[in-house]
Amino acid sequence: MRTYETNSITLEEVRDNVWEIPRTGDMNTPARVLASESLLEEISGDRTLQQLKNTTELPGIAKYAVCMPDGHQGYGFPVGGVAGIDAETGCLSPGAVGYDINCGVRMMRTNLTYEDLKGSEPELVETLFESVPCGLGGGGVLEKDRETVEEILADGVEWALNAGYAVEEDLRRCEDEGRRTDADPDAVSQEAKDRGKSQIGSLGSGNHFLEVQRVTDVFDSEIGDTYGLKPEQIVVLIHTGSRGLGHQVCTDYLDAIEQSHSELLESLPDTELAAAPAGSELAASYYAAMCAAINFAWVNRQVVMHRTREVFEEVFGRSWENMEMELLYDVAHNSAKLESHDIDGEKRELYVHRKGSTRAFPAGREEVPETYRSVGQPVLIPGSMGAGSYVLCGGEAAMTETFGSTAHGAGRVMSRTQAKQEFWGGDVQQELQDQQHVYVKADSGATVAEEAPDVYKDVDEVVAVSEALGIGDPIARTFPVCNIKG
């Protein structure tokens, strides 16, 4: 058996691309890292492995904690981490969901081709930047009162449909049809609601973006047809989350857990893993508030998509319906969800925490939209501005290997501080345009530097590991044309 040692942690190779930290000491389960050797080298460069090991000490954790091939250090719980925790004897951990609740990504397809768009890139990127709010703080496409925010928290994309920002098909092609029914606006603080009311329809900052892309490759024509994808087609990828509202929900409940469940907190190896015991009043309240923030994030992405449709109408002089600007799918990256999974031959109800990982359910699961149920759930894997992105299909092995999950992107290999020291935003922007015909517009040069292509792992290798393990099968590859960032 081959081993890999780093920072006092020993991993044993279970099989190709699967490395295990054996259960020792206070660990309740082993931990597994899904990665090639080169990706494992990058993952081991920060505290990811220690955070993953710490995660196994959460009460009620089942089977093993998992780190995806795009994993990197996060707040307590690693980004790229997945943990299934018993819904009766376990806990709910805000740190294992993250501050940006339902940070996620949606893809909208069109009937435009790359040839149709050529020459319009400068106008398109400028108009999108002027029309879709982005950057730290700031407002959104909509500014509503607190009562409207409460409706959004309760109803999700159904609110957007009733308000004229969505069509029925948008709901049917969104995870959970764009609404978590367990949401309770009363579990969300007034401060969180006030932070959210001016940010509906906004990208925010950091790695969030709106990217116009062209489909460069379709690897599976049958499933590609089902997803409505073909070579040289123009698609749009939108990546944002619950903004200040979700951040405040996480903050509020981490503070409440510190006050109410200090004994559990003190038993954990890292206070950033703060958790509320399953069945407790605080766990129920957090779950209801988290579901409400998830609904808010879905509406946020829906409104950004609505505005994007309007921009395309302005630039190309045709209705969005004529351009067939239809939602392909929307997936959440940061969430906890009550799901039934087979553990040692027994069906168990688990809170599946996914932080920087994507649900990847295979064909036949009732949670997959009917239009895709015969082939499996679409999975969207954004890459960097210089490397492109992937559309995958949920793989059968995901249900036994990863609680029905796979990676959520390329994953960082360089901190934002280091990136700003090594790259100049203007140079990155110019090189992308001159060498790869990618037009980028951002709130600042520093943002472009932080998101330079070289700060990310190799998305091709991340996807190759997913494919090799059968947890997500590549269907299509896309490449940027225009990108706006906060």
UniProtKB/TrEMBL annotation:
Keyword terms of this UniProt record: GTP-binding, Ligase, Manganese, Metal-binding, Nucleotide-binding
Cleaved signal peptide residues: none
Cofactor note: Binds 2 manganese ions per subunit.
Pfam families tied to this protein: RtcB (PF01139)
InterPro entries per UniProt: RtcB, RtcB-like_sf
GN (gene name): rtcB
Family: Belongs to the RtcB family.
Protein name: tRNA-splicing ligase RtcB
Binding site for Mn(2+) 2: H239, H333
Gene Ontology terms for molecular function: GTP binding; metal ion binding; RNA ligase (ATP) activity; RNA ligase (GTP) activity
Broadest EC class assigned to this enzyme: ligase
Organism: Halocatena salina
SUPFAM superfamilies per UniProt: Hypothetical protein PH1602 (SSF103365)
Gene3D superfamilies: tRNA-splicing ligase RtcB (3.90.1860.10)
Region (Disordered): 176-202
Function: Essential for tRNA splicing and maturation. Acts by directly joining spliced tRNA halves to mature-sized tRNAs. Joins RNA with 2',3'-cyclic-phosphate or 3'-phosphate ends to RNA with 5'-hydroxy ends.
One of the GO BP terms on file: tRNA splicing, via endonucleolytic cleavage and ligation
Binding residues for GMP: 207-211, 333-334, 382-385, 389, 408-411, 485
Record-annotated active site: H408 (gmp-histidine intermediate)
Xref: PANTHER family: RNA-SPLICING LIGASE RTCB HOMOLOG
Keyword Metal-binding: yes
UniProt binding sites for Mn(2+) 1: D100, H208
Cofactor requirements of the protein: Mn(2+)
EC code(s) of this entry: 6.5.1.-
The keyword Metal-binding appears for this protein: yes
Catalytic activity: a 3'-end 2',3'-cyclophospho-ribonucleotide-RNA + a 5'-end dephospho-ribonucleoside-RNA + GTP + H2O = a ribonucleotidyl-ribonucleotide-RNA + GMP + diphosphate + H(+); a 3'-end 3'-phospho-ribonucleotide-RNA + a 5'-end dephospho-ribonucleoside-RNA + GTP = a ribonucleotidyl-ribonucleotide-RNA + GMP + diphosphate
